[in-house]
Model the fold of this input.
Amino acid sequence: MGDNLLSKVLTITILLYWPISFLLANNPKDFITSFFPNVVFIICISLYQKGVRWWTAPLLTLGLVNPVLMIFPLFVAAFCFWLKPTKVNLAILFLAVMISLTQLNTFYQHSVFKYDRDTYQRKIEQGYLYPNVFLARVFQNKLTIYLERISFNFFALLDPNNYFFSFHPREIVGDNQNLDKFPFWAIAFLLIGLFKMRRLKRRDWFLLIILTALIINLSILAKFDRHDLVLYLPLSLVIISGLRKLSSSWVQIVLLLITAVEYLRLIFRYA
Amino acid sequence: MPKRSVFLISLILLAISILGAAIRFYKLGQVPAGLYIDEAAQGYSAYSILKTGKDEFGKTLPIIFRSFTDFKTPVYIYLIVPLIPIFGLTSFAVRFPSFFFSVLTFPLLFLLLIRVTHKRYAIALGIVTTFLLAISPWHTLFGRTNFECNVALFFLLLGVYFFYTGLKHRWMLVLSALMFGVSINAYHSQRIITPLIVIFLTWRYQHVLKDKIFRKPLLIAGICGLLIMLPLLSVATTPGFLSRAKSLNIISQPNRKPAGYISDVTGWGGHIVNSSLFLTSREFLSLYISYFSPRNMFNLGDYGPRSSFPALATFFSWQFPFYIFGLYIVIKKKELGELRNLTLVLLLVSPIPAAVTGDPYTTIRALPLVIPQLIVIGLGIIFSFLYLRNHLRIIFATVLVFLSIYSLLQLYSSAFILNEYYRAKDWDYGFDKVVKTIMASDPGLPVIVDNARGENYIELLFYLRFDPEKYQKENFEVPVSEYYTNLKRNSEKTIGRITTRPIVWEKDLVTDQILVGDELAISRQQIEENRLEIIKEVPYPDRKVAFRIVRTNPKYQMEKRREYILTKGL
Done:
């Protein structure tokens, strides 16, 4: 995209959209808690770029500040140790495990694994519909309860309509704020950014691992709404990387105009 | 290719087709239990055509069928006509064309893929994709029930296949044009999809088609295509033809507020944030993209209770990683040649008509999308297999076999067990039992069937196999000359001694007659208060009441009213 003023403004509008939307729809305290992981990511990235060996260490604070995100640092620490089995990585992994163990109960309370009597009851009732016990056990068991919940979250987190159209046309009623997260035109640049990753440079790997770990972590939560703000930075980076392919000034102007309308819509919707 | 290989491939294809046919044929006409009003309407229109040469409104061989003024496409209905003398007017006969053409789609897809795919992958892709189609929940659902979209898909693919064949054997282009014409006549959404596909194919092969030797076949193909389209074109400007598009599209509905409309903003701000062009474009894009969303494809499925199975999406969730990998392959591998172009164009074009309607992820209107999406999944599977080392390939193949068996069981669980239990109401379950009870009742008694919540007259006509000539005489909606232009409805229907209309309690209770209605129309309280005689309660599979058939008690009503007058001193 080059370094002209228009491209910089477009990048800024992308970066500000979700935080503003979140802030308008929630109170500042919620915003600070939910946005905190993104600050940690920025610290990690700068440490990584400086070549610091313990660049993953700040991630350990995530599990302490917000126990529902404890899986994420564990996943990253384990992956880094698997990639480079150094003493530093082992120490970070050990600490991640320790923190996770201390937060396990809180995490369980917010996870899909929490006991839900109604769902169990429904499964038992459905079991009686089958002609034999084998089929009933195959399709209506405890595991299917967890799998159904996890896959519901997992695919919702992978839904492009979630990020660019506030889940329209299939909004989640009750359990989600259906926030506007990025201007809708940015979907094209997310795809371009993802496709650019096919060369999988080191930076791309890093982004992909972060995204995968976060999506796995969020999928296990009973309710991922608000916590999904952790995806803000990785997704924004992919979109901005796709946006670099855009060189036409008049397209940039059109996109800026559309974004201005989108910002106005945000203000009118939540103000 | 050696004869032995051809034999083996044919054997595999036959096995896949038998499997797909078995999945679709098992309890065809019985599951889903019940018959949706659209199915009954198509069946009875066909019956009426067979017996009188006219539909139930008295129109001789209609170009599009008036029905509930939704003007149904004609191909499916005319396909049912010759089946009625063989199978009778039954759910089986009504659903049979859908089953038949869905099974024919398997070899057709295989042949098409062989034609457009690079030799290296052709057979493997053909077999894998055809197998995926055979077990596909999306295609299975429409292959077991009466949906015109399934027949239209077959003719669309046949048109594409003949087009590619026509590039070598030029007279095949005539058949291609005919098939495209049938496809457009077969389903509403094909009126957009087929022309776009034809434009793409013609544009892509313009260098070949410009050759002198193609002039004659192209001219004849054009004439044939036009001839087959002529009847439809002759009514193309009528309100009837346009009614469906007008009632569903998100662009031209006058009172519809587009998604994202912020109602409490007025003045200049309102003009900007609620700009119709901006919001409608945004909504269209959101609907269009939803057809590629993994959430809809692998988790939620169609929102409609009749166009989905409970607890099953349009694709099996294990196919998700192959879909992502397959998309990557389609975009990256330019050596896929024509397969790549055809897949991409089908992927991009198929959701357009569905996305113009406001409904989210409607798999009926976007059915042609099942083909490119399965090709993408098939490519994902094949390239994953190719990238693996030999010993891992065996494990991979074994896992896939287990997943396929599990998928078949899942299909059985959703389609034959959960769907039957939870979706009976959506499939208009119980009308056959209602008709049996009415037939067994005192023939001297008039029958009122409450129609406050639906077009149930057509179910009665269907199950009674009511004489179409008599029905045409007793019921008038609009003059035949205004068949396509006048959208006026007649809500009260007379079917012999049966009348369908909303129950008017005060009036209906004083006549000795039979009342039929659902639980809302005839409640327990009304039965007790008015001392109605329950003739029969028709339950759904979950034991909730589907219909109540009761006999009025005029004697009691008269007494009650007399007492009322006396106590009030009137």
Chain A has a mean pLDDT of 92. The two ends of chain A are 33 Å apart (CA to CA).
